[in-house]
Protein backbone atom coordinates (compact mmCIF):
# COMPACT_ATOMS: atom_id res chain seq x y z
CA UNK A 1 0.00 0.00 0.00
CA UNK A 2 1.00 3.64 -0.49
CA UNK A 3 1.08 6.37 2.16
CA UNK A 4 -1.70 8.89 1.64
CA UNK A 5 -1.50 11.18 4.68
CA UNK A 6 1.00 11.29 7.56
CA UNK A 7 -1.04 12.66 10.44
CA UNK A 8 -3.13 10.65 10.99
CA UNK A 9 -1.34 8.03 8.91
CA UNK A 10 -3.57 6.71 6.13
CA UNK A 11 -2.74 4.42 3.23
CA UNK A 12 -4.22 3.70 -0.16
CA UNK A 13 -4.11 1.03 -2.83
CA UNK A 14 -1.93 1.39 -5.91
CA UNK A 15 -4.98 0.76 -8.10
CA UNK A 16 -6.73 3.76 -6.56
CA UNK A 17 -3.77 6.05 -5.87
CA UNK A 18 -3.70 8.02 -9.10
CA UNK A 19 -7.44 8.39 -9.70
CA UNK A 20 -9.00 11.84 -9.47
CA UNK A 21 -12.62 10.56 -9.41
CA UNK A 22 -12.42 8.56 -6.21
CA UNK A 23 -10.62 8.63 -2.86
CA UNK A 24 -9.83 5.28 -1.22
CA UNK A 25 -8.14 5.07 2.16
CA UNK A 26 -7.21 2.73 4.96
CA UNK A 27 -6.71 4.23 8.41
CA UNK A 28 -4.04 3.05 10.85
CA UNK A 29 -3.34 3.29 14.57
CA UNK A 30 -1.00 6.24 14.00
CA UNK A 31 -1.78 9.89 14.64
CA UNK A 32 -4.86 9.94 16.89
CA UNK A 33 -5.74 10.97 20.42
CA UNK A 34 -6.55 7.60 21.98
CA UNK A 35 -4.34 6.20 24.72
CA UNK A 36 -3.24 2.89 26.24
CA UNK A 37 -4.53 -0.14 24.36
CA UNK A 38 -6.38 2.09 21.87
CA UNK A 39 -3.31 4.16 21.00
CA UNK A 40 -3.68 6.11 19.15
CA UNK A 41 -6.13 6.41 16.24
CA UNK A 42 -9.07 4.25 17.28
CA UNK A 43 -12.10 4.98 15.11
CA UNK A 44 -14.51 2.45 16.65
CA UNK A 45 -16.86 3.85 19.30
CA UNK A 46 -16.81 1.46 22.28
CA UNK A 47 -16.85 1.26 26.06
CA UNK A 48 -13.05 1.55 26.11
CA UNK A 49 -12.88 5.34 25.71
CA UNK A 50 -15.14 8.42 25.66
CA UNK A 51 -16.94 8.71 22.32
CA UNK A 52 -15.66 12.28 22.03
CA UNK A 53 -12.11 10.95 21.63
CA UNK A 54 -13.13 8.45 18.95
CA UNK A 55 -15.12 11.10 17.10
CA UNK A 56 -12.17 13.46 17.25
CA UNK A 57 -10.00 10.78 15.61
CA UNK A 58 -12.61 10.39 12.86
CA UNK A 59 -12.64 14.14 12.34
CA UNK A 60 -8.82 14.28 12.18
CA UNK A 61 -8.91 11.68 9.41
CA UNK A 62 -11.54 13.62 7.47
CA UNK A 63 -9.58 16.85 7.83
CA UNK A 64 -6.36 15.22 6.64
CA UNK A 65 -8.14 13.71 3.63
CA UNK A 66 -10.27 16.79 2.91
CA UNK A 67 -13.55 14.86 3.12
CA UNK A 68 -16.80 15.86 4.85
CA UNK A 69 -17.17 14.29 8.31
CA UNK A 70 -20.91 14.97 8.16
CA UNK A 71 -21.13 12.51 5.27
CA UNK A 72 -18.89 9.81 6.80
CA UNK A 73 -21.26 6.85 6.95
CA UNK A 74 -21.13 3.90 9.34
CA UNK A 75 -23.02 0.59 9.50
CA UNK A 76 -23.75 -1.79 12.36
CA UNK A 77 -21.59 -4.67 11.01
CA UNK A 78 -23.37 -7.77 12.24
CA UNK A 79 -21.48 -10.43 10.21
CA UNK A 80 -24.43 -10.53 7.83
CA UNK A 81 -24.72 -10.45 4.05
CA UNK A 82 -27.00 -7.40 4.16
CA UNK A 83 -26.16 -4.55 1.81
CA UNK A 84 -27.42 -0.94 2.08
CA UNK A 85 -27.57 1.75 -0.59
CA UNK A 86 -26.47 5.12 0.79
CA UNK A 87 -27.70 8.46 -0.53
CA UNK A 88 -28.42 11.88 0.91
CA UNK A 89 -31.11 10.37 3.18
CA UNK A 90 -28.78 8.18 5.23
CA UNK A 91 -25.37 9.76 4.60
CA UNK A 92 -23.46 10.42 7.81
CA UNK A 93 -25.30 7.73 9.79
CA UNK A 94 -23.47 6.74 12.96
CA UNK A 95 -20.64 9.22 12.61
CA UNK A 96 -21.26 10.59 16.13
CA UNK A 97 -23.67 8.10 17.72
CA UNK A 98 -23.01 4.39 17.32
CA UNK A 99 -26.65 3.35 17.65
CA UNK A 100 -27.49 5.56 14.68
CA UNK A 101 -25.24 3.55 12.36
CA UNK A 102 -27.12 1.88 9.48
CA UNK A 103 -28.56 -1.21 11.14
CA UNK A 104 -28.29 -4.80 9.95
CA UNK A 105 -25.69 -3.97 7.33
CA UNK A 106 -22.19 -5.11 6.42
CA UNK A 107 -21.82 -3.50 3.01
CA UNK A 108 -22.60 0.00 1.72
CA UNK A 109 -23.03 1.13 -1.88
CA UNK A 110 -23.39 4.66 -3.22
CA UNK A 111 -23.25 6.59 -6.45
CA UNK A 112 -23.48 9.94 -4.72
CA UNK A 113 -20.43 12.17 -4.78
CA UNK A 114 -19.01 13.34 -1.47
CA UNK A 115 -20.41 10.53 0.67
CA UNK A 116 -17.75 8.49 2.45
CA UNK A 117 -18.66 4.84 2.93
CA UNK A 118 -16.78 3.35 5.83
CA UNK A 119 -16.17 -0.18 7.12
CA UNK A 120 -14.40 -0.86 10.42
CA UNK A 121 -12.09 -3.76 11.13
CA UNK A 122 -9.66 -5.28 13.60
CA UNK A 123 -8.77 -8.58 11.83
CA UNK A 124 -11.92 -8.86 9.66
CA UNK A 125 -11.40 -8.00 5.99
CA UNK A 126 -12.27 -4.46 4.87
CA UNK A 127 -12.92 -4.31 1.13
CA UNK A 128 -13.72 -1.54 -1.34
CA UNK A 129 -15.12 -1.74 -4.87
CA UNK A 130 -15.38 0.99 -7.47
CA UNK A 131 -16.87 1.03 -10.95
CA UNK A 132 -14.60 3.43 -12.84
CA UNK A 133 -17.13 3.97 -15.63
CA UNK A 134 -20.50 4.23 -13.86
CA UNK A 135 -18.91 5.79 -10.75
CA UNK A 136 -20.39 3.47 -8.13
CA UNK A 137 -18.55 2.77 -4.87
CA UNK A 138 -18.87 0.14 -2.14
CA UNK A 139 -17.31 -0.56 1.27
CA UNK A 140 -17.58 -4.02 2.77
CA UNK A 141 -16.89 -5.67 6.13
CA UNK A 142 -16.15 -9.38 5.78
CA UNK A 143 -15.15 -11.53 8.73
CA UNK A 144 -15.16 -15.29 8.34
CA UNK A 145 -18.96 -15.36 8.52
CA UNK A 146 -19.37 -12.62 5.93
CA UNK A 147 -16.75 -14.26 3.74
CA UNK A 148 -18.64 -17.56 3.82
CA UNK A 149 -21.89 -15.72 3.15
CA UNK A 150 -20.08 -14.20 0.14
CA UNK A 151 -20.88 -10.63 1.04
CA UNK A 152 -18.15 -9.27 -1.25
CA UNK A 153 -19.56 -11.24 -4.17
CA UNK A 154 -23.14 -10.23 -3.35
CA UNK A 155 -22.11 -6.58 -3.18
CA UNK A 156 -20.46 -6.75 -6.62
CA UNK A 157 -23.53 -8.57 -7.96
CA UNK A 158 -25.80 -5.86 -6.59
CA UNK A 159 -23.66 -3.21 -8.30
CA UNK A 160 -23.99 -5.17 -11.54
CA UNK A 161 -27.73 -5.84 -11.20
CA UNK A 162 -28.95 -2.52 -9.84
CA UNK A 163 -26.37 0.01 -11.00
CA UNK A 164 -25.65 -1.52 -14.41
CA UNK A 165 -21.98 -1.93 -13.56
CA UNK A 166 -19.83 -3.96 -15.90
CA UNK A 167 -17.49 -6.11 -13.76
CA UNK A 168 -14.72 -5.40 -16.28
CA UNK A 169 -14.82 -1.78 -15.04
CA UNK A 170 -14.75 -2.58 -11.33
CA UNK A 171 -11.53 -2.18 -9.34
CA UNK A 172 -11.22 -3.70 -5.87
CA UNK A 173 -9.04 -3.27 -2.81
CA UNK A 174 -8.82 -5.97 -0.16
CA UNK A 175 -7.41 -4.25 2.92
CA UNK A 176 -5.29 -5.30 5.87
CA UNK A 177 -6.77 -8.13 7.95
CA UNK A 178 -5.62 -11.20 9.76
CA UNK A 179 -3.53 -13.21 7.32
CA UNK A 180 -3.40 -16.93 6.83
CA UNK A 181 -0.10 -16.78 8.73
CA UNK A 182 -2.03 -16.09 11.94
CA UNK A 183 -5.63 -17.09 11.30
CA UNK A 184 -5.91 -20.47 12.95
CA UNK A 185 -9.53 -21.63 12.91
CA UNK A 186 -11.51 -24.36 14.63
CA UNK A 187 -13.73 -27.09 13.25
CA UNK A 188 -16.78 -24.80 13.00
CA UNK A 189 -15.01 -22.57 10.48
CA UNK A 190 -13.29 -25.47 8.70
CA UNK A 191 -16.65 -27.18 8.16
CA UNK A 192 -18.30 -23.96 6.97
CA UNK A 193 -15.49 -23.17 4.52
CA UNK A 194 -15.48 -26.72 3.20
CA UNK A 195 -19.18 -26.68 2.47
CA UNK A 196 -19.23 -23.14 1.04
CA UNK A 197 -16.21 -23.23 -1.25
CA UNK A 198 -15.82 -26.07 -3.77
CA UNK A 199 -12.09 -25.39 -3.91
CA UNK A 200 -11.64 -25.09 -0.17
CA UNK A 201 -8.36 -27.03 -0.28
CA UNK A 202 -6.45 -23.89 -1.25
CA UNK A 203 -8.27 -21.76 1.34
CA UNK A 204 -7.56 -24.01 4.34
CA UNK A 205 -3.88 -24.47 5.00
CA UNK A 206 -2.84 -27.30 7.28
CA UNK A 207 -0.42 -26.14 9.97
CA UNK A 208 0.69 -28.15 13.00
CA UNK A 209 -2.42 -30.34 12.86
CA UNK A 210 -4.60 -27.20 12.80
CA UNK A 211 -6.05 -25.26 9.89
CA UNK A 212 -5.47 -21.67 8.86
CA UNK A 213 -8.15 -19.92 6.76
CA UNK A 214 -7.01 -17.65 3.91
CA UNK A 215 -9.56 -14.83 4.03
CA UNK A 216 -7.74 -12.81 1.36
CA UNK A 217 -7.90 -15.57 -1.23
CA UNK A 218 -11.50 -16.48 -0.35
CA UNK A 219 -12.65 -12.90 -0.97
CA UNK A 220 -10.46 -12.44 -4.03
CA UNK A 221 -11.85 -15.60 -5.61
CA UNK A 222 -15.46 -14.59 -5.09
CA UNK A 223 -14.80 -11.20 -6.70
CA UNK A 224 -13.15 -12.94 -9.65
CA UNK A 225 -16.20 -15.18 -9.98
CA UNK A 226 -18.37 -12.10 -10.57
CA UNK A 227 -16.20 -11.25 -13.59
CA UNK A 228 -13.88 -8.67 -12.06
CA UNK A 229 -10.51 -9.11 -13.84
CA UNK A 230 -7.75 -10.45 -11.61
CA UNK A 231 -5.54 -7.47 -12.43
CA UNK A 232 -8.29 -5.20 -11.07
CA UNK A 233 -8.12 -6.77 -7.60
CA UNK A 234 -5.41 -5.54 -5.24
CA UNK A 235 -4.76 -7.43 -2.03
CA UNK A 236 -2.91 -5.39 0.60
CA UNK A 237 -1.35 -8.59 1.98
CA UNK A 238 -0.83 -6.96 5.35
CA UNK A 239 -1.60 -9.13 8.37
CA UNK A 240 -3.11 -7.11 11.19
CA UNK A 241 -1.86 -9.46 13.90
CA UNK A 242 1.72 -9.46 12.57
CA UNK A 243 1.53 -5.67 12.18
CA UNK A 244 -0.32 -4.76 15.34
CA UNK A 245 1.67 -1.58 15.89
CA UNK A 246 0.14 -0.23 12.67
CA UNK A 247 -3.30 -1.87 12.85
CA UNK A 248 -5.66 -2.98 15.57
CA UNK A 249 -5.88 -6.76 15.88
CA UNK A 250 -8.56 -8.40 17.95
CA UNK A 251 -6.66 -11.69 18.05
CA UNK A 252 -3.44 -10.03 19.14
CA UNK A 253 -5.18 -8.14 21.93
CA UNK A 254 -7.75 -10.78 22.88
CA UNK A 255 -10.67 -8.58 21.85
CA UNK A 256 -9.60 -5.64 23.99
CA UNK A 257 -8.71 -3.40 21.13
CA UNK A 258 -9.77 -0.56 18.87
CA UNK A 259 -10.76 -0.36 15.23
CA UNK A 260 -9.21 0.94 12.06
CA UNK A 261 -11.12 1.05 8.82
CA UNK A 262 -11.45 1.44 5.11
CA UNK A 263 -13.20 4.32 3.38
CA UNK A 264 -14.19 5.27 -0.15
CA UNK A 265 -15.51 8.58 -1.45
CA UNK A 266 -16.59 9.44 -4.98
CA UNK A 267 -15.15 12.85 -5.77
ZN1 LIG B 1 0.16 -12.83 10.61
UniProtKB/TrEMBL annotation:
Keywords: Hydrolase, Metal-binding, Transferase, Zinc. Pfam families: Cu-oxidase_4 (PF02578). It catalyses: adenosine + H2O + H(+) = inosine + NH4(+); adenosine + phosphate = alpha-D-ribose 1-phosphate + adenine; S-methyl-5'-thioadenosine + phosphate = 5-(methylsulfanyl)-alpha-D-ribose 1-phosphate + adenine; inosine + phosphate = alpha-D-ribose 1-phosphate + hypoxanthine. SUPFAM superfamilies: CNF1/YfiH-like putative cysteine hydrolases (SSF64438). The keyword Hydrolase applies. Gene3D superfamilies: CNF1/YfiH-like putative cysteine hydrolases. GO terms for molecular function: copper ion binding; hydrolase activity; S-methyl-5-thioadenosine phosphorylase activity. Belongs to the purine nucleoside phosphorylase YfiH/LACC1 family. This is Purine nucleoside phosphorylase. It comes from Acetobacteroides hydrogenigenes. The lineage of its organism: Bacteria, Pseudomonadati, Bacteroidota, Bacteroidia, Bacteroidales.
Amino acid sequence: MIELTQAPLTLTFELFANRNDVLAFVTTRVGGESSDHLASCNIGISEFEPASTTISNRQRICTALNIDFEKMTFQSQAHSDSITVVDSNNAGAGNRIKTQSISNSDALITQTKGITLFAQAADCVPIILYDTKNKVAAAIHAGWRGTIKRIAQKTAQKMIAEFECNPQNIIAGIGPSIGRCCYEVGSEVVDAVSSSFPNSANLLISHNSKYHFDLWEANKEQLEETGIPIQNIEVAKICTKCNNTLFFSSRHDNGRTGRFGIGITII
